[in-house]
């Protein structure tokens, strides 16, 4: 090759390189963070938790009871119980047989079983648990039951944990005494681990024994509370650092019918006095019928308040407004019969905040919490719509404010983020000067990306907004094929920058639904998945955690050419200042399939030369976390350097990155 040709090639390469450098410079996004002015305070309630007993979230999930139908109060009293050596249908009593007896006077505890034992060596009574029982080797499990001897010589009950093959992996023997009902307690130490264990009862001696409230709990529960909550699940919730806990739902508040609505007064007091109710999600979806889904209310309103207190979250109960679910029966309480519903709301405030000299304050004290729970918020209705809701809300609001003017009342705009029902509700609630309006959105991923500027144009003098239920649907709303994939999680992150940028309007947000049993679910997607032994946070969970753990105290601006980043060239961003840690926190979402270079300039603050970044991303938009890979999509931390008070960095493709920069 001659020298002239080499020079020409070299010149062309330099020209190409120069163009590439110029393109790279041109593509660098110049962003400005203005730390000199607080636009609005970030409310402590900005990021919270929505809990509903769907997908076995309470019984079989958060509530650690392992025995299904412990009190024999299901519609079929023997549901969940098996008698493998007896022919139930032909009443073959050769070995023995258990019969449900309805004779107790309490509406909460009407049924017990009478066990006739003819051949002690041949009769077994087995509880299947909630899709099995999760048992860990070396762990201790606390057993309790109510028992009374009948005729004959049944002297002992042997309780044995058996694994999937029927092998015994732990047992205890309880001596029976007397014909009067009494509570018996014991413990079982597991010798092996099993995800689908069962509890087997056998008997010593022939005769009759009556049994009720057969219960088994892990000894190691959240906060060590006896008969408490499942530790790993609460830990996942607590790690979100939630600002509030909304409970008990959700459509479960409304009920398919008014008779099957959630009634908080039936969920407090002694466990055995809490009246069981069929769960409204048991047969809601043809694709996931769960006829064995009931509510024992072992996790009731007292336990919800206690859980909120444990996590430092504001309790946010939601109550029925006298309207059953409008997607089901849409039953209405006539306006002149609404008083009991209103009284329920007033009594709940007394239960949460009242002095121990009051009726409901004393009940709270008797349950072990003499101090008030300091409830500040109450929601009226879940996602009702139309004139009937507005009429009822007005009456509730008037009554509550007359007695408890300090309580903040949350109203609802219906189940959808747009359309006729939404527009009517928002118009009416704005005219009523409603304090906080709850909005719900279950939409495709693109909707979330396209609506990151949704609240930019909201009236700053209108109601505050609670984004109370939202989740990107990978297929379609209520589809059993929805997945917690990275595309959905990333889209939610983009949307959340818009929630945060409008913190002067949006004061509360929560993903929904919260959790799901791997074999007991009805609805997808969900934030947390669990089986009887394990649990994990989805990609969506880690998006929520990054925002919630980095909420800051003050909203500040981040702009590109004086405009907020709402998806221009697939870049979204929000920024806050944390006065407690003296940091600037910038959240950047890049939804494009290529990295984007940014040059962050900080105005109004001198920043340190080192910072931290937390990157959440995946190359595969369909990727999901799983039991096999519970942290496949989870944040990666790194230290980064600043130069002359500027942060020049590359935001990876399809990523959420949180930058934490110390102020000097």
From TrEMBL:
Keywords: Glycoprotein, Hydrolase, Signal. GO terms for biological process: L-arabinose metabolic process. It catalyses: Hydrolysis of terminal non-reducing alpha-L-arabinofuranoside residues in alpha-L-arabinosides. It is an enzyme of class 3 (hydrolase). It comes from the Bacteria. Pfam families: Alpha-L-AF_C (PF06964), ASD1_dom (PF22848). Residues 468-655 form the Alpha-L-arabinofuranosidase C-terminal domain. GO terms for molecular function: alpha-L-arabinofuranosidase activity. InterPro entries: Alpha-L-AF_C (IPR010720), ASD1_cat (IPR055235), Galactose-bd-like_sf (IPR008979), GH (IPR017853), Glyco_hydro_b (IPR013780), Glycosyl_Hydrolase_51 (IPR051563). Residues 1-26 form the signal peptide. This is non-reducing end alpha-L-arabinofuranosidase. It comes from Phaeodactylibacter xiamenensis.
């Amino acid at each position: 090759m001659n020298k002239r040709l080499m020079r020409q090639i070299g010149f062309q390469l330099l020209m190409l390189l120069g163009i590439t450098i110029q393109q790279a410079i041109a593509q660098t996004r110049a962003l400005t963070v203005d730390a000199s002015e607080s636009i609005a305070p970030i409310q402590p309630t900005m990021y919270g938790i929505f809990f509903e007993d769907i997908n076995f979230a309470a019984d079989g999930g958060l509530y650690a009871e392992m025995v299904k139908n412990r009190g024999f109060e299901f519609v079929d009293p023997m549901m969940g119980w098996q008698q493998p050596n007896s022919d139930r249908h032909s009443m073959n009593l050769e070995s023995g047989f258990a019969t449900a007896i309805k004779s107790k006077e309490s509406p909460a505890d009407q049924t017990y079983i009478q066990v006739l034992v003819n051949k002690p060596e041949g009769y077994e009574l087995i509880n299947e648990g909630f899709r099995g029982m999760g048992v860990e080797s070396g762990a201790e499990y606390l057993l309790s039951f109510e028992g009374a001897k009948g005729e004959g010589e049944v002297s002992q009950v042997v309780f044995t944990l058996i694994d999937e093959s029927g092998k015994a992996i732990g047992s205890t023997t309880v001596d029976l005494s007397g014909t009067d009902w009494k509570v018996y307690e014991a413990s079982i130490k597991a010798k092996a681990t099993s995800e689908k264990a069962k509890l087997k009862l056998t008997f010593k001696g022939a005769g009759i024994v009556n049994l009720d409230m057969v219960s088994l709990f892990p000894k190691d529960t959240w906060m060590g509370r006896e008969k408490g909550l499942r530790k790993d699940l609460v830990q996942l919730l607590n790690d979100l650092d939630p600002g509030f806990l909304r409970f008990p739902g959700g459509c479960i508040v409304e009920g398919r019918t008014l008779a099957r609505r959630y009634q908080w007064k039936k969920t407090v007091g002694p466990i055995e006095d809490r009246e069981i109710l069929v769960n409204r999600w048991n047969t809601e979806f043809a694709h996931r019928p769960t006829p064995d889904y009931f509510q024992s209310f072992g996790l009731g309103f007292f336990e919800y308040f206690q859980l909120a207190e444990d996590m430092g979250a504001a309790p946010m109960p939601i109550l029925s407004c006298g309207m059953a679910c409008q997607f089901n029966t849409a039953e209405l309480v006539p306006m002149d019969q609404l008083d009991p519903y209103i009284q329920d709301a007033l009594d709940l405030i007394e239960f949460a905040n009242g002095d121990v000299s009051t009726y409901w304050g004393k009940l709270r004290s008797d349950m072990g919490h003499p101090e008030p729970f300091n409830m500040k918020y109450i929601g009226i209705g879940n996602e009702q719509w139309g004139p009937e809701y507005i009429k009822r809300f007005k009456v509730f609001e008037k009554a509550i404010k007359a007695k408890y003017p300090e309580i903040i009342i949350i109203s609802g705009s219906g189940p959808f983020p747009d359309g006729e029902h939404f527009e009517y509700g928002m118009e009416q609630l704005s005219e009523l000067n409603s304090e906080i309006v709850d909005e719900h959105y279950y939409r495709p991923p693109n909707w979330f990306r396209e609506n990151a500027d949704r609240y930019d144009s909201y009236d700053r003098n209108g109601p505050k907004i609670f984004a109370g239920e939202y989740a990107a649907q990978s297929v379609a709303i209520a589809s059993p094929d929805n997945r917690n994939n990275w595309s959905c999680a990333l889209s939610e992150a983009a949307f959340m920058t818009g929630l945060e940028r409008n913190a002067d309007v949006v004061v509360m947000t929560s993903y929904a639904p919260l959790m799901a049993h791997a074999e007991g679910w009805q609805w997808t997607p969900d934030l947390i998945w669990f089986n009887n032994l394990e649990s994990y946070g989805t990609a969506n969970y880690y998006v929520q955690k990054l925002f919630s753990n980095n909420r800051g105290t003050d909203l500040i601006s981040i702009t590109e050419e004086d405009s907020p980043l709402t998806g221009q060239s697939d870049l979204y961003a929000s920024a806050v200042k944390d006065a407690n840690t003296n940091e600037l926190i910038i959240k950047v979402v890049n939804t494009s399939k290529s990295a984007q270079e940014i040059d962050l300039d900080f105005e109004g603050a001198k920043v340190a030369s080192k910072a931290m970044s937390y990157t959440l991303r995946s190359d595969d938009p369909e990727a999901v976390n799983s039991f096999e890979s519970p942290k496949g999509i989870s944040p990666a931390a790194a230290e980064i350097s600043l130069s002359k008070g500027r942060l020049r960095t590359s935001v990876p493709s399809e990523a959420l990155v949180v930058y934490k920069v110390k102020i000097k």
